[in-house]
Amino acid sequence: MKKSVLALGFFGLFTSNEMLAAPISQSSPEVHHSQWWKGISFTNQIDLEGVANLSGGQARGSVATGLWQGSLRLDTEKAGWWQGGAFVVEGLVANSGNPDNYVGDLQGVSNLTTPRAHVARLYKAYYRQNVGQFTFRLGILNPNDYFNTTGVASELFNASFGIYPTISINLPYTPTYPYSSLGAMLSYTWQQSTLLVGAFNADGTQDLRHPWGAEGQIYYGEWDQLVPAGSGEITLKLGGYYNHVSSAYLAQNTPFGGAPSQGGYYGAAEYRWKAGNGSEWGAFLQGGGAPNSSVVSPVNAYVGAGLRLRNFLPGSARSTLTIGLNRAWLRQSGAESAIEINFRQPVFHSFYLQPDLQYIINPGARAPGSTLPNAVVLMLRVGWSGDIWG
User: Fold this and answer.
1) Distance between CA atoms of 169 and 147, rounded to whole angstroms?
2) How many domains does the chain have?
3) What's the count of helices (H) and strands (E) in the chain, helices before strands?
4) φ, ψ of residue 151 in degrees (nearest 5)
């Protein structure tokens, strides 16, 4: 049985305030910051997780993971300078076991798992400016904070619900949790529509060691549309990406090896509505493809769907039950599917408990004749989030 030793974090003088959870792959959302002193605010997020492969897969076993994220924000308007500006700096410390060594899966049962056992890094450092209907960001960013996101699926642990495997597996060095890269992005919102475009350094693992352009860039474009529907609203998202890289650079400088330039597309639909008893429902549908050769893009297609119910327990605000199903195809072998049930329960002072059960069908998407037994994975996450208050 493999166990990791938790080594993380620091605590200051905090008074916690309850905040909605964001996908672990994302940075602390800017809207979660509460002003402290002259526009300065500081948020903390701590997550501890245990993962046990109960049966099937490659072997029975368990691991533990710990994550700390701390984000400092300066609001230029609250500081008395100019309107619409914000400087954001975020650090990350993670000590991660790898449950995939036991499960043998393709997609990743936990979105806390990191490629290396120990990660401590500057995660974000960027400037954001709002000008009318435009928002501009420049600096060290995680593109997955803004592109290829599905809010209704945010409580689920399986990593593919947060970033599709057509991106994360085909581009193992791409800037996404726990990595980021130098980039710039622009969004424009009019009425119920938002258009987003961005360009980021391709190598998220060692971005600051090389100047802009040495490894190539990944380009994103996405269109979001909000549509009123009955007692709720539908959000439609359609996007694409193109990763233009120097394969020689990647083969030499990243621990994951190089991959040829490639592109793909993705989409999502989310429906949120409220019931008469005060409960909040959400449903989602995801899909993505990488229309390239198997050498370039081993994962050629992905689909996901799910249902979420908030205020699930009477008298327990924000208790959340989420069910998700997904399937990823390896072009030259088979497909892997995951069925997940997740329950998130706020406890006290912004602490929460989150048990999770996953059933992995054909772990590793292996071809017939070489398949692993289907796996049953049980997880428990304990988390806390809070602000410093003056």
Assistant:
1) 16
2) 1
3) 3, 16
4) -60, -40
CATH of the domain at 356: 2.40.160.180
Task: Determine the residue type at 342.
Answer: N
162 close to 178: Cβ distance less than 8 angstroms: no
**131: Cα within 13 Å, side-chain hemisphere:** 5
Chain segment 191-200, per-residue pLDDT in tens: 999 999 999 9
Q: What is the length of the chain?
A: 390
Residue in the block written with tokens 């990660």:
119
Q: What is the pLDDT of residues 291-311, one digit of tens each?
A: 988 888 999 999 999 999 998
Distance CA 295, CA 154 (A): 31
- The residues near 313 (Cβ < 8 Å, ≥ 6 apart) are 319, 345
Q: Are residues 347 and 383 in contact, defined by beta-carbon separation less than 8 angstroms?
A: no
On whether the pTM is more than 0.70, the answer is yes
Q: Which of 47, 159, 135, 119 is nearest to 86 (CA)?
A: 135
Closest CA to 331 of 296, 371, 300: 300
DSSP codes, 323-342:
EEEEEEEETTS-EEEEEEEE
Count the alpha carbons within 13 Å of 169 in the hemisphere toward its beta carbon.
Answer: 27
In a domain, 35, yes or no: no
CA distance readout (Å), 224 to 125, 233, 238, 306, 349: 26, 13, 7, 20, 35
Asked, for residue 2, whether it belongs to a domain, the answer is: no
Domain that holds residue 373: 41-387
